[in-house]
């Protein structure tokens, strides 16, 4: 092997809920991107960086590509699709993730999978198809789908994987590595993500909202960390004091997040605090409050305030 340093961006794109964020966390061996069984969990692009002495592979987790729903904020939806499309346009390698369970039997690819293929078909970069969740099917069931997809000729490589068990993930990494261009190190050797601790803290609260609340509410809420203070306890132990606002769209939704006698909010806070403490490796004090910002997911000014501003989407290759 040559000793030239190589570095590049690998975009993880695809429909919602197929396992893109699970895959990113699996590759890095730690949680940088939140995961839930509900679609549209990821809202912004998140970088996860894998380093070796001669290589830096920067994986870009993206929001699931989706059609705007009349029931959900059109502004937020546009922001999410734009973030995903700009990440895939600017990456060195595009990895399209799909869920094998959407295609049981030997029929042609489902309409949603075909739309995903169409999203990447005309991109000039090397394209890898990752058929995820193979832990959920019997291996022989995969074969007809694999050969049907191979015949379409859209992809340079087709790799069945399980982001959950790790099956096939090493093969993906080896294939992506071969496609990395020569280039300098772009991040510090110990940097795993470009997201700040402040940002990951709000995401971990948002993850609990996705996990604990039903139906439309997760989509109608956002989390913003308003205070993040590194200090020490009376005993001299390090502690981070965080205050975060859960933003919903209507006053009537506040009660659902808060729950009976504050029980739901307490549970969200407890679980999120635990996760944040694991990430930071120290004690955490987390204070949550809920506020309503009418129709924030539609209004440009509120979207901007909450960090969902289309004009701020950088290409993944721009200066970190
Ligand atoms: N059985 C199985 N479940 C998986 C696998 N990968 C992901 N999941 C589950 O699929 C659901 C969605 O996973 P995410 O990683 O949030 O999916 P995503 O593509 O990032 O979703 P969005 O951010 O909403 O676009 C979660 O419940 C995961 O636990 C897998 O390989 N096998
Ligand atoms: Mg995701």
Q: What is the level 1 CATH name of the largest domain?
A: Alpha Beta
Percentage of residues assigned to helices: 25-40%
**Strand fraction band?**
15-25%
Mean pLDDT: 93
- Main beta-sheet strand count, sense and barrel state: 6 strands, mixed
Q: Give the number of domains.
A: 2
Bound molecule types: guanosine-5'-triphosphate, magnesium ion
Strand order of the largest sheet: 2-3-1-4-5-6
Rg result: 20 Å
Amino- and carboxy-terminal Cα gap: 29 Å
Q: Any guess at the CATH architecture of the largest domain?
A: 3-Layer(aba) Sandwich
Number of E-state strands: 9
Structural class: alpha/beta
Low-confidence stretches: none
What name goes with the CATH superfamily of the largest domain? P-loop containing nucleotide triphosphate hydrolases
Give a structural overview.
The protein has 320 residues and is of the alpha/beta class. It has two domains: 6-178, Rossmann fold (3-Layer(aba) Sandwich), CATH 3.40.50; 197-312, 2-Layer Sandwich (GMP Synthetase, Chain A, domain 3), CATH 3.30.300.20. It contains nine helices and nine strands. The protein has helices at 20-28, 74-90, 111-121, 139-152, 169-178, 197-212, 251-258, 263-280, 300-305; strands at residues 6-13, 46-51, 55-61, 93-99, 127-132, 157-160, 222-232, 238-248, 283-292. A six-stranded mixed sheet has the order 2-3-1-4-5-6, sandwiched between helices. Guanosine-5'-triphosphate (GTP) is lined by residues 16-22, 35-37, 39-42, 63-64, 132-133, 135-136, 162-164.
